[in-house]
């Protein structure tokens, strides 16, 4: 049961490692969406994945990096930094990396709420990843 007026504080340690290899700190969830804080240490590159049933909105808080996205109509690499926002539409393949000297940090809103690790499907990497598969 979700409390009537939920609140959360960002944890110091990750609650989970995402299927792409990034660090996840859980924040809040409702019946329609969930929100988490994501960290990728400096110089790291995630695994490329796509989602089965969810879409996401990302808002970058710290660090610099690049996000690769691909669908049937094409692909792009977007440079990201604090203040950048982007979407990960349903079924889009994506991968990201932290290119600066600071960790890449951002907030992720997931709709519907994140269902679990089986949500992410591995796809062909755009860059060589350096996290465990």
Fill in the keyword field for this structure.
11 strands, Jelly Rolls, three-stranded antiparallel sheet, globular, six-stranded antiparallel sheet, about 45% strand, about 130 residues, mainly beta, single chain
Q: What are the secondary-structure elements, in order, as H or E?
A: EEEEEEEEEEE
| Main β-sheet description | 6 strands, antiparallel
Question: What's the CATH H-level homologous superfamily?
Answer: Jelly Rolls
First-last Cα distance: 34 Å
Could you explain how this protein is built, in words?
This protein is mainly beta and 133 residues long. It has a single domain, classed as Jelly Rolls (Sandwich), CATH 2.60.120.10. It has no helices and 11 strands. The protein has a 6-stranded antiparallel beta sheet, with no helix packed on it. Strands 7-6-9 form a 3-stranded antiparallel beta sheet, with no helix packed on it. The chain is globular.
Outline the secondary-structure elements:
Elements: E1 16-17, E2 23-29, E3 34-40, E4 49-51, E5 55-62, E6 65-71, E7 74-80, E8 85-88, E9 93-98, E10 104-111, E11 120-122
Antiparallel strand pairs: 1-2, 2-3, 3-10, 4-11, 5-8, 5-10, 6-7, 6-9
Question: What is shown here, in short?
Answer:
The protein has strands at 16-17, 23-29, 34-40, 49-51, 55-62, 65-71, 74-80, 85-88, 93-98, 104-111, 120-122. With 133 residues, it is mainly β. The strands form 3 sheets. The chain has a 6-stranded antiparallel sheet, with no helix packed on it. Strands 7-6-9 form a 3-stranded antiparallel sheet, with no helix packed on it. A two-stranded antiparallel sheet has the order 4-11.
């Amino acid at each position: 049961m979700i409390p009537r007026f939920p609140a959360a504080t960002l944890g110091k340690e990750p609650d989970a490692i995402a299927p792409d290899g990034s660090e996840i700190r859980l924040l809040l969830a409702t019946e329609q969406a969930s929100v988490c804080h994501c960290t990728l240490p400096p110089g790291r590159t995630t695994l490329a994945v796509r989602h089965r049933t969810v879409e996401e909105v990302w808002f970058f808080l710290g660090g610099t990096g690049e996000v690769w996205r691909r669908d049937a109509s094409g692909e792009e690499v977007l440079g990201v930094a604090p203040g950048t926002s982007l979407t990960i539409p349903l079924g889009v393949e994506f991968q990201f990396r932290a290119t600066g000297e600071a960790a890449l940090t951002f907030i992720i809103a997931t709709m519907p709420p994140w269902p679990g690790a089986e949500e992410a499907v591995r796809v062909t990497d755009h860059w060589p990843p350096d996290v465990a598969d």
